[in-house]
Here is the input.
Amino acid sequence: MKNMENKRKGIKSWNPLTSLYLIIVLAVVSILFDFRITLLTVALMIVLAAVSGEGASFTKLWLKSLVLVCVICFALQSLFIPGEDVLWSFWIFAVKREGVQKAVVLCSRILGVGSAILLGGKLIDMKHLTAVLEERGMSPAATYVLLSTANIIPQMSKKMSAILDAQRSRGIETDSSLLVRAKAFFPSVGPLLLNALVSAEERAITLEARAFSAPCRKTKLREIADTPRDKALRAALISILVLAIGGRIALWIALK
Amino acid sequence: MDSIKITDLTYRYPTADEDVLRHVSLSVEKGQLCAVVGANGSGKTTLCNAIRGFVPKFYKGDISGEVLVNGKDVQKEEIGVTALDVGFVFQNPFTQISGITDTVYEELAYGLENMGVEPAEIERRVEEIMGLTKIEAFRDRDPYQLSGGQQQRVALAAVLVMNQDVFVIDEPTSQLDPQSTDDVFEIIRLMKNMGKTIVLVEHKMEQIAEYADKVVVMDQGQIVLEGTPEEVFSDPRCEEYHIRLPQCTRIALDLKKEGIGFEKLPVTVQETVEAIQAITGTGKDGQERKG
Here is the structure.
């Protein structure tokens, strides 16, 4: 256990709150200015992921999700937003300058904020983050919801496949044409939701049995270190954020 | 002093037409192991919920009568406060995982964290209970990835580690193989030796005969028989309530029909051996036979 803690590299060794600040600063900076700054911040994010030992997995996920979404968005917007200035045309499709402009703005926002969130998911341990938030006065019920939501998704998909197996064994066809699959949708999702409701009740009992609402001060098995370095980093990040927002406002006034 | 004292408890679930508990009165002394047996739907689990205060706090419904645990009225107490007095393990192991821990170790520590136990003490107690319940082998595994039987042992351990005075344990061995069942009963015996008061719902009569101080038979929401294992299992009404007797008792009953006179019906293996030795005159002087 302890060895694992020490092995955390780069950003991952920071206090999770500091990492959260970093993610927020990156996300805000990436949408405040134009697409060049966005590209720069995104490049910085990839570097940060690499430094923390998550480079490959972050880039893979990033390419598969965000880049794909951005490409689709870009294509749709540049093709279908009406405009006068045609840059390039093929058959019934035409790429218009106005479309491209709007597409660049939209895609850079998606890319900036999306990459920041993805990076956060890779670099911040939810458990550590909620522990810190709880220490700072967030209600345990709220942190529980955050944590269990992150944990419940694999659990739900496991249940889903069990239900699909059960329904298949009762003769409901689940893999065939689109129509057949659509028909199987309700008999599979229904039990999943009902199950989730029933187990929510038992989960509540489990938590009560573990003294969740006991009126005493809670302790944490592992205290999360908040070093002077973390405090300094957070101060620096806040100043960057203020500077960036200030700069943006100044720029806006100057342009006006 | 009685650890648990239930007086004239009647309860009905909100949507039900009938009372699920009817005029139940029961007292369990401190340090006693009280086994609750009975057919499905006879109200055993509801009784457990009532001792922990989930009935009526969590499930609502109509209740009359009183439940005292360590002298405190659980119906009047905050539901979170009772957690410090009563450890509660319920039937379904699959939902008894907190859902926010990544390892079995953290799962066991979770209840202690909520109770505000200091980290060093948490580590000591978790290590100790993992040893007792023989789950060290999967200490670093994700609790959700364990088999039903393993999860059940983790769920039991996660509550035992909290070390309250009173434990309510509802069918802790439903998913377990015979060896693990024996292990669980061994843990329960240890808990009893530590002076814990335990209410246990079980269907495995051999183990009940061996370990319980007191057996309570429930039928249709009422307590119909109550006493030591010997008293209850030798009562002919057991059949009426569909209580399966321990194997030794059944053998003794059959032998009795064949005309072999037992002075009193044995309920454990040891008692049966002694009774047969007494009748046949073997044993101490003749060839020693055990089990």
User: Anything to note?
Assistant: Strands of chain B lie at 2-12, 21-29, 33-38, 62-69, 72-73, 86-89, 166-170, 197-201, 214-219, 222-227. Chain B has a mean pLDDT of 91. Chain B touches chain A at residues 52, 54, 58, 78-81, 83-84, 87-90, 92, 95-100, 102, 105-106, 109-119, 122-123, 140, 144, 158-159, 162 (CB under 8 Å). The radius of gyration of chain B is 21 Å.
